[in-house]
Structures are given as structure tokens and as C-alpha cells.
Amino acid sequence: MAMTQDVNPTRMELIKTKERITLAVKGHKLLKQKRDALILEFFKILKKAQDLRGQLAVKVAQGYHSLALAETYHNIQELSKVSLDLHKDIDADIEVRNVMGVKIPSITAEVESRHFLSLPSYSVAATSAKIDAAVEDFNEILQMTMKLAETETAMKRLILEIEKTKRRVNALEFVLLPRLEDQKKLISFRLEEMERDSFVSLKTIKRKLEKQKKEANAKKG
Question: What's the distance, Cα to Cα, between the start and end of the chain in Å?
Fold first, then answer.
């Protein structure tokens, strides 16, 4: 029985050990519930991330197609000028929700609505709707990329917490609980052994007293 030998074999120590076992069992159960809830949340976000990746791939292909069409109507200098002049401010609002102790970011971003025709360097006669279509496509790509970044961050945080929780569950299940159970058995064994020794000692003392009493009675007789 793998146990430390400095355990006090007392009734109080046995009670304390049983209380530790009860507490460890409850903690083990709660940690398993947390682990399962985190895994469930991870797969929900994983599905969302997979969908977003697929949508983003389609949108990126559409964006480059729109850009290629714009290049057939405008030369590279015109497109470069639009790209450089069309500076837009992004207002990002980040909220945090708590999932079983894990902080999951939620990003809401608003891109400044600024039509390229409002630029002083361009006029209606000199441009086409092809540029506008490309700009709109890449605005959507930006929004989808930020949303994907949100889900990827959430997944990384959940994975770290799942691994940490699994280690704690395993430590309780395979280290602490077996050790406490062994400690309880050892204390119980020692207490029973001490009780047997005490019983034998009492019987021995009783026999000696009875013998002495008989000898004393024999001398009187």
C-alpha cells in the first residue's frame, strides 16, 4: 500500500481524511462538468469557424473577380489612386462574455461608409460601378475576417482552458483520490490493529488479576 508513514492513526485524522475525499469527489464532478461544457462550446464555435472560413473563401474569390473586372475598365494607376485615397475609419467594439470562467471576445466593427465617388480626385464620368463593386466586396471581406479572428481567438482560449481542466480532473482522479483512499485504509487498518492490541492487553491484564486473586484466596484458605 503506497502511503506516507507519518500519518497519525487517530479517529480525528480518519474523519478529516473522509472529509477530504468527499470534497475531492465533489470537485472532480464539478471539473468534469466544466470540461464537458467547454468541449461543447468549443465544437459550437468550431462549426461557426468552419462556416466562416468557407464563406470567406467564396467572398475572397468574388472580391478578386470584381477587382479583375475593374482592371478591365480602369488602368492600374486609377485603381491604385482609389485604393490610397479611400481611407476608412474602423470603429471596433469588443465585448467579453464569460463561458465557464473563459473570457470569449465578441467583436462588433463598423466601417466608415464612404463612397469612392465622394473623393475629390474622381468624377462620375471618369469612373464606373466596377470599382464600387470591388470596394463593397472587400469591405465584406474585412468584416468576415474580423469575425473569423473573433472565433479563432475564442477557440484558442477554450483549448487552453480545456487542457488545464483535463489536467486537474486527471490529477484528482488518478493522484489525489487514490492517495486519500489509501490513507483512509491505512488509518483504519492501524486503528483496528491498535484496538486488537488493546483488547489483547486487557485480556492479559484480566488473566493476571484473576490469577493473583486466586493465589491470594488460596493463601487465605
Answer: 57
